[in-house]
Amino acid sequence: MAYADHSQGSSRTVSIVVVALIHAVLGYAFVTGLGFQYIKKAAEQLNVVDVKEEPPPPEEEPPPPPPDQPVQPPPVVTPPPQVALPTPAPVITSVPTPPPAPVPAPVIALPPPPAAPPPPPPAKVEPRGNPGSWVTTDDYPPRALRENRQGTTGFRLTVGADGRATGCDITSSSGSPDLDQVTCQNLMRRARFKSGAAGSYSSRVVWKIPE
């Protein structure tokens, strides 16, 4: 039994392989034949139009130069040669030795000029009348009299050529300004001198409270 089953199985396998090969051959022939026919028919039905590409226009070449003006090559510029100039030698100037400076002359100090002589003192003039009457105790300032102030006033009168006093200076004060002021006021009003020569007159007035 086992032998029979094995024989039947092998025969069945061979049959299946043969059938498969037959189907493959038939299918290939069918596909290749039918496909060729359909493609041929489709190619006959199509109207194929060949489109020719136009060649590009030729490039324009630059016109040649006119015959009467030949092209000349650019001039060759040669740089000037570098000439090394000789360096001048330094000029040496001899400076003569200056002469020695002259010795300054000694300065001689001159003595100062003599001073101008002082002006001569004014000429003394001669009073006219009694100088004691020019200022009296009646001229005593009331305030100085009440305060019992006394003193001596020195004066100097400047006298003109007409014999009148033109100025009065107090040479020594009595210590009371009012007594000095009254002295000059009365002298300028009352003093008289002999005319003929201008000069000065100096004296003093004793201020003493009367008893």
Architecture overview:
This protein has helices at 2-45, 142-146, 177-190; strands at residues 151-159, 165-172, 199-207. By secondary structure, the protein is α+β, with helices and mostly antiparallel strands. The chain starts with a helix and ends with a strand. The protein is built from three helices and three strands.
Short overview:
The protein has three helices and three strands, in the order H-H-E-E-H-E.
If you average the pLDDT, what whole number results?
76
Give me the number of helical elements. 3
Query: Main sheet: which strands, in order across?
Result: 2-1-3
Strand fraction band? 5-15%
Report the count of strand segments. Answer: 3
Uncertain segments: 1-7, 46-51
- Provide the helix percentage: 25-40%
> Radius of gyration, Cα only, in angstroms?
83 Å
- In whole angstroms, the N-to-C terminal distance is 215 Å
Alpha-beta classification: alpha+beta
Principal-axis shape? elongated
